[in-house]
Amino acid sequence: MSSKKRYGIAILVLLVFFLSIWAFYPSGQPNNGRAQAMGGFQAVTDSDDKGGYNEYLKSYSADDRPSQVIRIEGESFAGTVGEGFEVADRPEGLDGKAVMTPDAGSISWNVPVQEAGLYNIRIHYYPLEGKSSAIERKLTINDEQPFTGAEDLLFDRLWGNRDAGIQRDDRGNDLRPRQIEKPAWQLKSFMDSEGYFAEPYLFHFDKGTQKLTLTASREPMAIDYIELYQDQTVKSYEDLKKDYEAAGLKPAKDQYMMIQAEDAVLKSSPTLYPLSDKSSPSVIPYDVSKIRVNAIGGVNWKLPGQWLEWEVDVQEDGLYQIALKRKQDQLRGVYSTRSLMIDGEYPFKEMKQIPFNFDMDWKMDVMGGDEPYQFHLSKGKHTLRLSVSLGEIAPLLQTIESSVLQLNEIYRKILIITSNSPDPYRDYQLEKRIPEMTEVFKTQAATIKSVADYLEQSTGEQSDKVAVLHTMVNQLEEMAAKPETVAKRLTAFKTNVGGLGTWILNVRVQPLTLDYLVVSSPEAKLPRASATLFQKIRHELGGLVASYTEDYDSIGNTKQSDKSITVWITTGRDQAQVLKSMIDESFTPESNISVKLRLVPANILLPATLADEGPDVAMQIGEDVPVNYAMRKAAADLSAFPDFKEVASRFNESALVPYEYGNGAYALPEQQTFPMLFYRKDVLAEIGLTPPKTWQDVYNMISVLQKHNMEFYLPIDTVTNNANLIPNATFSMLLYQNNGKFYTDDDKRSALDSDISMEVFKKWTQFYTNYKFPLMADFPNRFRTGEMPIGIADYTTYNNLTVMAPEIKGLWDFTMVPGTELPDGTVNHEVASHTTAVMMLENAKDKDASWAFMKWWTSKETQIAYGREMEGLLGEAARYPTANIEALEELPWPVKDYKNLESQWQWVEGIPQVPGGYFTGRHLDNAFRKVVNGNENPREALSDYLLYINDEIAIKRKEFKLPN
């Protein structure tokens, strides 16, 4: 081949390479365009939705808005309910007195109102030390809740970086700054915590002395005063420009201030920690291989009301422009909205809603777009606060949320007639038996279509967010036109309504990532937001090289001190980073023991141990592992340490049961979960039921539920491989409540052949053979729709429902499981728990150092810190189910919900682990399936499989040279 030809091919290859990179990365030119939010969409909600804020405002629409400000001093309260209320003089630097209110109970004031009308309310408060969550209060006026939403008033705590600068580990990587509370006195209006109403709530007060009461739901606070006032209307930018001209204000000259977004001085939540963004070499600061903290926000900064605040030191009085380098790469087809306050006030009306369109790349957005807004800043320090706002999305969400509730109500009415498995060949004449059905379908189709049309017009594009709505609209229109097809479409209808619920979740979040803010003279040239082509090439090639040279398995500092241990964790990188940060900040300085923390797959522990390459300590392992390792002399006996009993007292005795073997204990519990009863308050009230206290109450309510084609949920595992299955939660519950047990004769054989066990097994299977309980069910989703309005599930389901089902907030609760009534009239509510553990390996090189780490890790202080960090990092869905009794009490549970948890925890029992015990859960499930699916006699089925269980126990005891 000639040199010219080779040269030509080389040029062609390079050209293709550069073009492919150019195509992959969009153009990086600054883009000031943003979504143009369209005004005028009014929320369409159910006219029968009694008690809502919209209805409340309509009922008092003719009221005056008195200009008088009425102040009620906190210490002048009229009465309290509960303990812990006290008046303090000059608390936390306050010039005067304040009342300290605890996290439970209520406090009331008499308010002298001279002129009846609508008032806003604001409170001057200080967040007292608590459990690191937002303060929550319920408001009543004259002992009545004015509207839905007044029971859920939130007051922020203030958070910030603990250290002034960014710390680095010994490998040159930035460490994420720890977030600490920075409490201060704050003035906050009573507002909608969900973000649907952007303006402060208005409350009607009659003339005369009115009683105002705040009831604590969560966290303590100090109250200086409460004021009734009128929120002032904010001017538009056009009106403000006229004021600028009248005052003779001029643009500032030659001013340019860049504020790194990660340097936010205050934030409303510990989840708003600085981030490391490696998506582009244009972010500041940047390193091709090392971790650099260089951004903030992202998917953590997404919930209405969350805010970030920066400080800017202005050198010259004048008019400035404000720009953000931002990335909104999460919401295609919907814009993310923010509001901007300067020194605690909106500069003009347009800053209440700032929309940011979807774009995968970094963009430079100037406030105001092509004709930038100008902001008057005087010389000196100012604060800029950006808050998450639903903006024009709020009425859309209200509309769809109302639609979901109405469609679910129709679905339940249809369910009563057809059941959840309707006959496809039968005409149920639903349009006659539910006269309003077709009208609801038509109305909701038009309503949902209006939302879809609005979104398409305002964002200028179609997306998956709109497709979900169109799918629902099409089905509703078809069912309205052909009501005889509703029964056969019921499953698809339920799925599509569930899709609307998911749509609410996806659209309600408003993520936005920031690199930096620029406050500058209007004529200043702004930096390029995205990287150049050659920066991108260098970034990609550098990342490729770094993948071979950087150690991504080790977390944090790896330098070893005189004493050193290796710890393996199997969960996730976020958990590992939080843990390593705590180790480096607390454990290592106090103990002089360095820890090499490694993030490994869960299945690597066994082969590593066999090869003598395992860790000293293994964390977050299943409850079947420690005793199985102990049988093989691979786990260290912790009871040999002199202070073991003192450490064991941190836990409920039930949490230690799975780790006891012989006379030893081979692990410490980290997490402990157990079942609780979840129920829909609204649905049970509709059909005249109350939560059951005993299993007899359950039997009594089954017929009523089934009459309405609703179901009671009992937990059942639907695994394809039941090799390591734990005993079923319902069976364990019934067994323990009837004073049964799993093993007998010093754990040498199964106790499931007892009369108690046989009777319990029969009762358990009868739920499925006689009462036709479902063998498979998606409980959280069916709980949302109301077709399964009550059920028993692990208490961590609470976290999922809190986050994933906002449309039923306040409509459900949880309590103790049904109990068995004993001959003496008492009720036994015992349940079995499930745990995870931290275990020391027998071949640990320094057992004293390993034990010191395990004691530190399971201590109250460490478990609280870890639990709060994880919830701060990942939100309420990641609330940590610690096994430490005192630590759980300090995690941010609402007081009422924690009391429910505590009540059930007192009844928790552990399931022991024995040689061959893995056959118990496996064959219990096999016997159950044989009865339910094969119509086998329960006693005979269980007896058959008991032979296998006892044989396996005997074989394993023989293998480990234990007496039979």
Mean pLDDT: 88
- First-to-last CA distance: 82 Å
Structural class per helix/strand content?
alpha+beta
| Oligomeric status | single chain
* Number of beta-strand segments: 43
Instruction: Please work out how many helical segments DSSP would assign.
Output: 26
Question: Low-confidence runs (pLDDT<50, min 5 residues)?
Answer: 16-38
Percent range for helical residues? 25-40%
Largest sheet: 7 strands, antiparallel
Question: Would you write up a description of this structure?
Answer:
The chain has 964 residues and is of the alpha+beta class. The chain is 34% helix and 22% strand. Strands 1, 3, 4, 6, 11, 12 and 14 form a 7-stranded antiparallel beta sheet that branches. Strands 15, 17, 18, 20, 23, 24 and 26 form a 7-stranded antiparallel beta sheet that branches. The chain has a 5-stranded antiparallel beta sheet with strand order 2-5-13-7-8, with no helix packed on it. Helix 10 links the parallel strand 27 and strand 28. Helix 10 runs antiparallel to helix 22. The radius of gyration is 31 Å and the shape is globular. 40% of the residues are buried.
Keywords:
seven-stranded antiparallel beta sheet; about 35% helix; 43 strands; single chain; 26 helices; alpha+beta; about 950 residues
